[in-house]
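Suppose you are handed a protein chain with no further information: no name, no annotation, nothing but its sequence. What can you learn? This example shows the usual starting point.
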Amino acid sequence: MKRYLFAVAAVAALATAHAAGAATLCVGPHSGCFAQIQPAITAAHDGDTITIAPGTYVGGITIDKSVKLQGTSAGATTIAGGGPVVTIFRATASDGLNVSIDRVTITGGVNTSVPDHAVTFGGGVAIPVAQLDHPPFNGTGATVSISNSIITGNSVTSTDVIPPGFCGPRPCAFNSGGGIDNGGVLTLTNTQVTNNVAGSTASLVSTASDASSGGITTHFASSLVLRNSVVSGNKATVDGAIANHADSGGIGSNGGLDIADSVISDNTVSYTGSLDVEDQSGLAGGLSIDQFIVAHPTATIRNTRITGNSVTAANTNPSSTPAGFGGGVVAWVPALLERVMLSGNSVEVNGAGYAGVDGGGMEIDAPVTMRDSVVSQNSVKATGARGAIAFGGGIAMFGADLTLERTVVVANSATGNGAPAPLPFGGVSSVFGGGISNGAPGVPQATLTLTNSVVNANRLSGGPGFLVQGGGVFSPGGIVSTHSVIAGNKPDDCFGC
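A reasonable first move is to predict its three-dimensional structure. Written in structure tokens, the prediction is:
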């Protein structure tokens, strides 16, 4: 027993001695430095720092130790290629990894095979969930901070499909996380995630049926913190023979989410297909908030611009019912938005059959509070050869309470075109709620509360025979309004107020 205790103490002493004397390794052309990053990681120990000189270095690296990678600047130090470019994972206790990456550009990742050819996660950075080899297969992965960096020009795409059976009678394939696939605890600071793609690209024809999270995806046991960062120009797109669904052009969050002082802009979701099955859709051009565990009960977004994001969906099958919603945001769980600019986002759906669209700025499916914010110039447009419905140019409520405090809803719009025929889910072709729609035919209502807020200059337009109601607000069950103004909307201010 004494010898056992002595051995344990000796090992602990060695570990402490190494931690106290953590080394700095270098990568670059200088004498004594490694020529590439992976050999430096192999030689490093937990706690070490790896400095990287200006230049472009080979990607496809795996970080399996708690180290710091420190480039010269994002403009000078580049890690390029691979699929993913950087993977942060180890088979044993991956949740114990603590990795930081600073002042680099991560680019050129093309992931067509991880974890397999039909299901791909992570084009630029992959932080896999822990416990991949035994139940529950979903533990939280590494803790990672990325600062002063750029993740750009990466993609995930499929080159194979899952045979019929797993997805019913049709084959399917899934792509997610064009820029970053996050199964861990991730913090981005002063970092840009731009021009990444999940699904089809200009040079790669994807076999995917479903694509999501062109910029960043976060798994349900994981979390994302965004500070002073930009997520822009990313795409989630499907357009092949089995195309079914695309979502979350910028960020798809299924875990904890905390965003502040950031920009989510000009991300796109695009679905183009010909299937006659239900549920073909495009949604959440900028951001999807969906949390499956109670550890993160409320998403928070503060001092942030969510602007210029878009969703388009089109189906050429006359039996189809394509849908699009949430040009800027879709909130499936409770969320708090403070000092947010939600502006210039859009959703457009075209169907050879029916078409449905809502939530140009935001669709909410759980209680949301907005304070000191602006919802402006968002739009929805639906065109259906057999009928169409469009509602919530600014915000669409799906049975979830909305509270606006000191918030302006201005110059949003909803448009419907096509046949005025009865819709398969009830009602006739309709356009509701240019600014805010509290429910719609077949959609339950909730409580809409306005405090010291303004709904102004929103508008509706519909083709011949369309039912058009609530240019400013559509809320058949009424609203709770305190010191608020609903005025100057077309063709009317409020239906149900």
